[in-house]
Specification:
single chain, 62 residues, alpha+beta, two-stranded antiparallel ribbon, 68% helix, Putative toxin-antitoxin system, antitoxin component, ArsR family
């Protein structure tokens, strides 16, 4: 359970205790914030390039 404690302390895990049962859920908000801050700026140029390739290939096929 140590890995779950690490996620909980990082704010990435929501824990709900119901009696003796412990339900663990990933909190998508901080993960989305990380994506928006770090990953999206690198993903956008790649997506644009893939879209251009797709359009070029479709124009060749048609």
């Amino acid at each position: 359970m140590q890995h779950l404690k690490v996620l909980e302390h990082a704010g990435l895990l929501i824990v709900k205790k119901v009696g003796r049962i412990r339900w663990n859920y990933l909190d998508h908000v901080p993960i989305q914030e990380i994506y928006d801050r770090w990953i999206s700026k690198y993903a956008q140029p790649s997506l644009e390039k893939l879209t251009r390739w797709k359009n070029e290939l479709e124009s060749i096929i048609d």
